[in-house]
Amino acid sequence: MRGAGAPAGRPRVGPALVEALPLQTDPNVQITLIDALVTLREKRAVPQLEELARQPEVLPAVRQQAESGLGQLI
Description:
With 74 residues, the protein is mainly alpha-helical. The chain has one domain (11-73). It is built from four helices and no strands. The chain has helices at 10-20, 27-39, 46-54, 60-73. α2 (27-39) runs parallel beside α4 (60-73) and α3 (46-54) packs antiparallel against α4. The longest helix has 14 residues, at 60-73.
């Protein structure tokens, strides 16, 4: 039985966010996804964050958020 306030679908949320990240082109959505993945401590996002941090066409704010997220997850 779950305690009050326990997230019901949390185990499935992380993988869905990991899959969504490389599909997004809106910088605001990218940053929001990165924040959520870090909050969830979703280590499966590391390859996607590394890729975002390397892409020169990605906005600097998104690259910085990806680098920050990597620092928190690695």
